[in-house]
Amino acid sequence: MGGKAGVDFYFLDDFGTSFKATVIYDPYFLLACKLGFEAEVEEWTRRKFEGLVKKTSRVMKEDLQMPNHLLGYRRTFIKIDFHNVNDLLAVRKVLMPIAEENRKKVDAMDIYAEVANSRAGFDIFDDNQETRKPTSFVEASDYIVDIREYDVPYHVRVSIDKDIRVGKWYTVEAKHGVVSLTLIEERLARADPVVLAFDIETTKLPLKFPDAIIDQIMMISYMIEGQVYSLCLH
Questions:
Q1: pLDDT tens, residue by residue, 204-231
Q2: Which residues pair with 131 in a beta bridge?
């Protein structure tokens, strides 16, 4: 086990002092499977990756990879949560080729049939129908047709899901080792950070930009907190 995953966020307070807060958040990705086989895939995933998968759940999201996704077609995805990013990468490495191979077997007619039946209000793989094929834990992997949101960087995922934005004011609290951030909506003025600017004067050939290999530094000047300083080099 590689511990828990978290993101370090750096803040400025009212007095210009900086501090760090670590927000713990479970990384995850989504699995798309054939309509009606979510339970089998979910159970297979938990058994196959026992110790790596923290939990599974189902979420409804718009399927943006459908040719007619602008119509707002929503499908059920299996959300797989992990303790840390290493566990996510280990499971993704196994599931990625499975999903790619199964996706090759799904043609456009299968996709449109799934959409049509879901909109009609019934499931082509309904438990009450004799047409449903029997499955086992081994066969369940055959119904994984895609893996989504696996490529979102972890810190970006946390910022999106937690709605944490640069330049906003937050109340930072820590209770029982858990850090929470609460947006202070009424505060709009930005914090006043410490700004450091510098300028380097160098030699250069006519009509050329300075070249670090052949040109020399003559002077470095910098400004911090409104005060300008110069360093003359001989």
A1: 999 899 998 999 998 999 998 788 888 8
A2: none
Find the farthest-apart pair of alpha carbons in the chain and give their distance in angstroms, rounded.
90
Its sign, for the CA torsion 164, 167, 169, 170, is positive
Position 63: which residue type? D
pTM comes to 0.67
Domains in the chain (CATH in brackets) are 6-183 (3.30.342), 196-232 (no CATH)
pLDDT digits (tens, 9 = 90+) for 84-109: 999 999 999 999 999 998 888 765 44
Reported as half-sphere exposure (CB side, CA atoms, 13 A), residue 53 has a value of 21
Task: Kindly state the DSSP code that residue 87 receives in the 8-state scheme.
Answer: H
What is the C-alpha R_g of the chain?
27
Q: How far apart are CA 216 and CA 15, in angstroms?
A: 40
Rounded to the nearest 5 percent, the helix, strand and coil shares of the chain are 25, 35, 40
- State residue 126's pLDDT score: 41
